[in-house]
Design brief:
single chain; 9-stranded mixed sheet; 2 domains; alpha/beta; Dna Topoisomerase Vi A Subunit, Chain: A, domain 2; Rossmann fold
């Protein structure tokens, strides 16, 4: 170790009060002494004499080459230097807090080496610094050395595990962004089977879309009074009754939470529990209570008292997922944008949808959200008269549906003699492009409060 210390100009001395100290010299690439970093042994503290800001400790010893190791501290530099005495190694002057700035200041010198190995501490700060610093270098120039069982190279050496340090350097891996894989790496990771998602209440929709999966965003668009909210309640009832899932409702225009429970329970039982004139037998009352308890035990609800801000919505969804919700029903996204005009509304919508997509993927829940249509070009009126519309007709345009894996439109001719007939059509299906353009007829049954499929495709496709 003495010869290593001499090679790196690492010395032992005394501070003003006679306390023993370690002294690390910091010289620039030209050998000019810039600073001394003094380690107070008893106090476990540092003092700096000179300017240590933009110099790598040990850099004066090397002039380019095949490989350079950059450690977090000078003791780690000495440890690596002792174990791999012919390999260039330098230290950050002030730990990872200054890593990015110091590496940028010495980039020309660093790029004189073919490979730069970042060998920072095995802790959160060290890993975060690696992620920050690798972005400074051209691709394939940076490798990452990692110790599995020790905090840093010096700790490993002191524990008699010097070979672990050498292996970490020898097996250092090129950095690549998280999530980037070659095709062969994907094969080595194993098959990811194509799976069916949760079934919807409508066999044709399930057949065409392959169901709803965790991480999916599903958008339902329609004009006012066409049945967006009821369709979401049909889905919620199905998820609870047939899949046993916990779901969450964020119905911004339905602050009466008991009404939400009653309506979902009514769909399950096929009874209009919201009808104040309804007369129930004792047996039916028992059934209603049982079903409401089933719904309540699988439901997380949010009551909005005032305007809902995007950040609040995101926070509420985090808590819904933490409460066990696997599918969140959000009605409607347009409500959040009320009061925002012009280009600012489009920007706010883009940001909200990106954040909703990120959150659903991060927490692995499915988000089913409703949206109004544009007010200005007749699309809403068209939907309310039974006419079809496209993705551009959604409020905010395609920004509204950019991240959705499944986009559904609902139309209903409110002036028709057959007002209970709805058409559900698929505007976008990421999992099955052939589903786009398909339509499904649904009929509302006032006595059961259910919206049922008229001609299910599962019967057509039966063998």
């Amino acid at each position: 170790m003495q010869s290593t210390c001499e090679r790196f100009n690492y010395k032992v001395g005394f501070w003003n009060n006679g306390e023993p100290v370690h002294i690390a010299e910091a010289r620039d690439a030209n050998g000019q002494l810039r600073a001394q970093k003094v380690r107070l042994v008893k106090e476990k503290d540092f003092r700096v004499i000179g300017d240590l800001s933009n110099v790598l400790i040990g850099m004066n010893l090397w002039r380019g080459g095949k490989k350079l190791i950059v450690t977090e501290g000078e003791l780690d530099m000495l440890s690596v230097g002792q174990l791999l005495d012919r390999t260039p190694v330098v230290s950050l002057p002030n730990g990872v807090s200054s890593a990015k700035r110091v590496l940028m200041a010495n980039m020309d010198w660093l790029l004189g080496f073919d490979e730069i190995i970042l060998f920072f501490d095995n802790d959160d700060k060290g890993r975060e610094a690696v992620e920050e610093c690798v972005r400074l270098f051209p691709p394939k120039r940076v490798l990452i050395a990692e110790l599995a069982n020790y905090k840093d190279a010096n700790e490993a050496l002191m524990a008699g595990a010097g070979r672990d340090v050498m292996i970490a350097v020898w097996e250092a891996k090129h950095y690549k962004p998280q999530g980037l894989f070659s095709g062969l790496e994907v094969l080595e990771r194993g098959d990811e089977p194509i799976t069916q998602g949760w079934e919807t209440p409508y066999p044709s929709l399930t057949h065409l879309s392959y169901g709803i999966k965790p991480g999916d965003l599903v958008c339902i668009g329609a004009g006012t009074g066409c049945g967006k909210t009821h369709l979401m309640k049909m889905m919620a009832a199905h998820m609870i009754k047939h899949h046993g899932l916990t779901v969450a409702t964020l119905f911004l225009e339905e602050p009466q939470l008991m009404k939400t429970i009653d309506s979902i329970a009514g769909i399950i039982d096929g009874v209009d529990y919201l009808n104040p004139h309804l007369k129930l037998t004792d047996e039916q009352k028992v059934q209603k209570d049982e079903t409401k308890r089933l719904v309540a035990s699988h439901l997380v609800l949010y009551k909005v008292d005032a305007s809902a801000e995007p950040d609040e919505i995101l926070l509420v969804m985090r808590h819904m997922k933490a409460s066990g919700a696997e599918v969140i029903f959000f009605d409607h996204v347009t409500y959040v944008l009320d009061g925002i005009a012009g280009d600012n509304e489009v920007k706010a919508l883009k940001l909200l949808m990106r954040n909703l997509n990120t959150l659903a993927k991060e927490l692995n829940f499915a988000l089913v959200y409703a949206s109004q249509l544009r007010k200005t070009d007749g699309s809403r009126a068209q939907s309310e008269r039974g006419g079809f519309f496209g993705l551009d007709d959604f409020h905010g345009g395609k920004s509204n549906v950019q991240y959705a894996s499944l986009v559904l439109g609902v139309v209903r001719d409110q002036a028709s003699d057959d007002k209970d007939l709805n058409t559900l059509f698929i505007l976008k299906c990421r999992d099955n492009g052939n589903a786009t353009g398909q339509s499904i007829e649904l009929r509302y049954q006032p006595d059961t409060t259910r919206k049922i499929e008229v001609n299910p495709l599962d019967e057509i496709y039966k063998e």
